[in-house]
Amino acid sequence: MSSADARRSNPAFIWLGLALLVAGFFGHFFSARAIGGYYIAYRDHIFGFFLIAIVTGAIIWLLGRWLWKRRDVTVLIIGAVQAIFGFIVYLNRFNIH
Q: 97: part of which helix (H) or strand (E)?
């Protein structure tokens, strides 16, 4: 595989990854809203989103440099992980008493 083939990206993967990233953000946002909508809830959930994004993004980026070279796949995987975490956080709002 040549360097040009490895660097070719699929814009649909990038857009889907960004859409999943936004979905993960809204999972945190709506969870904060559902548990009362107070400033501290929004602050903690949004901080948690960015913390998870930075930590998992760094791990996935390092794995991507080692296992695959395409940036679009990296963006898609980061978005999918964020969407999964956002969904889990949103579901866990039901466990707040």
A: none
